[in-house]
Design goal:
seven-stranded mixed β-sheet; 17 helices; 31% helix; disordered C terminus
């Protein structure tokens, strides 16, 4: 599939300025890998009077089919008839729109560091797409592009077969657009309207598609007379997502008409008043403390060891700073629940590359855990028998050795503050022990000393002046100047295998059926963790 963008200029304002805007040198041919093929950028002509940039996308039909199997993605509309023989490599579609956003990302955002004044200038543009699927014909093409400021919108139907004109026209058109627009505006319009005209997308539509639509439609979609049709087709006719998009577009339109910001209009609910009297669950305090510590550590690749139902993994995915997130648990039931919570099968392609769920036991070393910036053990250690803690210690601190390790565990001294918890009882039926602050500090200090880490302690939740916080957290940071001891006696895993599927019945973290109702904190624990 093929797209060209042309502009004209003069010696005072040369047309080759297009190269600055696109961040692609007119004298070079460049290739970029995409998830379904290769995108090539080159300039058929580049003079001061006229410059043309071409984007050629070579689609690998085999990769398209393989990526689409069983995941709700890759669903080219004609693939049901013939998976490997369809129009996807030849006709402009969401494949071209995604390549456009990847290859010309800075231009789409209206950014040009070398010539910052250029993105704000309207240029005489000519856009040509030789083959564009148009489900609605040329009439729909005009309805979509005419309100956007183009001087010329030409949609020429492509005949089914030129030798047999009586067969009529196909559903494809040759599109030509001409007019004076900012390049960023033109690219954003194409990014949205190409898949809208095709009325199909090659990937699963997730809720974040609404945000993509509103970003690309900023400045033109809210006032477009066909914004309902555009939103519905762009979001694959998902009613709930379409309704969300239209409600947000209406807010944008009202804000523009009123000369105010969207946030000023969308303030009918006072969230602070609605929540100020409700106690914050301990699980929320815990996640907030963990996220704050990870930000301070500058971690990008994070392990959640004993991830349970994936609450922390879900929170990490919301922050693009985390480029790789791995959740590991010995319980397949917990991992299945985490996959449902994260909606892995429906997750967008870019998001799904950031997250993995693994089955494994912390009682054994695992090569898959090496090389990460940080590891989190949130309410995990208290589920192990004390004699198994050295195995966990070596697997995490001796073998995996992330730069930062965060460990949280209940503070047993705080239990007296819960009237509904009988004296002498632990907070969760599966807890094998609960430590005082002194016991936890002694264990953490010894672990840090043996493995070359420094350690600091952070209270989690309300810090009672007499009994301390309900949860205690240790932040271990690798000491570059200290060589960890490698005494083989510290390695309790005499079995050299690293099979992560070792019989989980020996690991108490697999118990996911315990009733957490004895915890009076209203905190909903994740599978296999304490409140």
């Amino acid at each position: 599939m093929f797209l060209t963008i042309s502009t004209t200029g003069s010696p005072e304002r040369p047309a080759t300025d297009l190269g600055y805007l696109l961040h692609k040198h007119p004298g070079k041919t460049q290739a970029f890998s995409t998830s379904h093929g290769t995108a090539h950028v080159f300039y058929p002509e580049a003079t001061a009077e006229r410059c043309t940039a071409a984007l050629l996308l070579e689609v690998d039909p085999v990769a398209l089919v393989r990526r689409g199997q069983g995941k709700g993605r890759g669903g080219a509309p004609d693939a049901a008839l013939a998976q490997y023989v369809n129009d996807r490599p030849y006709a402009a579609s969401s494949l071209l729109a995604v390549a456009l956003s990847g290859v010309f990302r800075s231009a789409l955002k209206g950014q040009c560091a070398v010539r910052p004044e250029l993105p704000e200038q309207a240029l005489p543009l000519r856009v040509e797409i030789p083959v564009l699927p148009a489900r609605g014909g040329p009439e729909l093409v005009h309805r979509l592009f005419d309100p956007l400021g183009w001087d010329l919108v030409r949609a020429e139907p492509v005949p089914l077969d030129e030798q047999f004109p009586e067969w009529g026209d196909s559903r494809y058109v040759r599109l030509v657009l001409e007019g004076e627009l900012k390049l960023a505006d033109a690219l954003r319009q194409l990014y949205v309207l190409l898949p809208v005209l095709d009325d199909a997308k090659h990937y699963w539509i997730a809720p974040d598609e609404v945000d993509k639509l509103l970003r690309a439609g900023d400045g033109w979609l809210a006032a477009h007379p066909e914004n309902g049709l555009i939103s519905s087709r762009y979001l694959a006719r998902h009613k709930r997502l379409t309704q969300d998009a239209l409600e947000r577009l209406e807010l944008v339109r009202l804000a523009e008409a009123d000369g105010s910001e969207v946030e000023e209009l969308d303030n009918a609910v006072d969230e602070s008043r609605d929540t100020e009297e409700r106690p914050v669950p301990l699980a929320v305090h815990r996640r907030d403390a963990i996220l704050a510590a990870l930000r301070v550590a500058g971690a990008q690749r994070v392990l959640d060891l004993g991830c349970g139902q994936g609450q922390l993994v879900q929170a990490l995915l919301k922050d693009p700073a985390y480029t790789e997130i791995v959740g590991m648990d010995v319980s397949m039931r917990a991992l299945n629940l985490a996959a449902k919570r994260l909606r892995l099968e429906r997750m967008g392609e870019r998001q799904s590359t950031r997250v993995r769920l693994l089955q494994g036991s912390l009682a054994y070393t695992d090569k898959r855990l090496a090389g990460y910036d940080a590891a989190v053990l949130s309410e995990v250690i208290e589920h192990l028998d004390p004699e198994r803690l050295p195995a966990l210690e070596y697997a995490v601190f001796g073998s995996a050795r992330p730069r930062t390790v965060l460990v949280t565990t209940p503070n047993v001294e705080y239990n007296v503050r819960w009237e509904s918890l009988p004296a002498g009882h632990v907070r969760h039926g599966d807890h094998r022990f609960e430590w005082t602050r002194a016991e936890f500090r002694a264990w953490a200090d010894a672990v840090a000393r043996r493995h070359g880490y420094g350690v600091e302690f952070v209270p989690v939740g309300d810090d009672d002046p007499e009994v301390g916080p309900p949860t205690q957290m240790a932040v271990f940071t690798q000491s570059d100047a200290t060589d960890p001891t490698t005494d083989p006696t510290t390695d309790p895993t005499t079995d050299p295998t690293t099979d992560p599927t070792t019989d989980p019945t020996t690991d108490p973290t697999t118990d996911t059926t315990n009733d957490p109702s004895t915890d009076p904190t209203t905190d909903t624990p994740k599978e296999g963790e304490a409140a």
